[in-house]
Design brief:
Blueprint lengths: L9 E2 L11 E5 L3 E6 L7 E5 H13 L4
Antiparallel strand pairs: 1-2, 2-3, 3-4
Length: 65
């Protein structure tokens, strides 16, 4: 799946800003898209929004957010 321009992408808050950023996300109504920031026109991964929020909460619980 490739991303379309309709999505509002944002970089991970842990991206370094030195050109080594690795993850960008875009939230839709029912899902979250994830892509490699260095390959913006490359493939994306789509996960259900609820799954994404569960993943982020698990990272936070383990001090990884």
């Amino acid at each position: 799946m490739t991303a379309t321009s309709e999505h509002q992408w944002f970089k991970s808050s842990y991206s370094g800003g030195s050109g080594t950023e690795c993850v960008e996300c875009a939230h839709g109504d029912d899902d979250t898209l994830i892509r490699d920031s260095k390959q913006a026109e490359g493939p994306t991964m789509r996960v259900r929004k609820r799954t994404w929020h569960t993943f982020v909460r698990a990272l936070a619980r383990n001090g990884l957010r």
